Fold:
Amino acid sequence: MKTATLIFSAAVATVSSWGALAQETASPAPAALSLELNGAQPSDKGCRLTFVVKNDLGADLSKAAFEIALFNEAGVVDRLTVLDFKDLPAGKTKVVRFDLAGTDCGKISRVLVNSATECAGTGVEPAACMGKLKTDSKAGISFGV
Structure:
């Protein structure tokens, strides 16, 4: 009976150490600024673009703004504009909407993030907003860098 208890205790200790080892060797998620084009709906002013943004850069952004290019259905750049996402706290997901006056949502075929015009925060490199940008679209419009 003592032998069985000893074997069981050794097995439990071994399994427990595997869990600890897995936690030690798991690498942290890479730092990223995730920007998702979540919707494009007609509004009284033109076209309302809805974005979901999550700051996983590991530091608060006091200011984040991006120049975007809107392409028409022929694939030609129709407009350049700057979207100001303002402050983006670390680890927080935020929904931001922009009304683009005089823009027909049905004629937007692609949205391109051209550059980060503002990327400021304590301990954040100015190039991080573009260099660590991850894009996605749920709006049926191509979106990326």
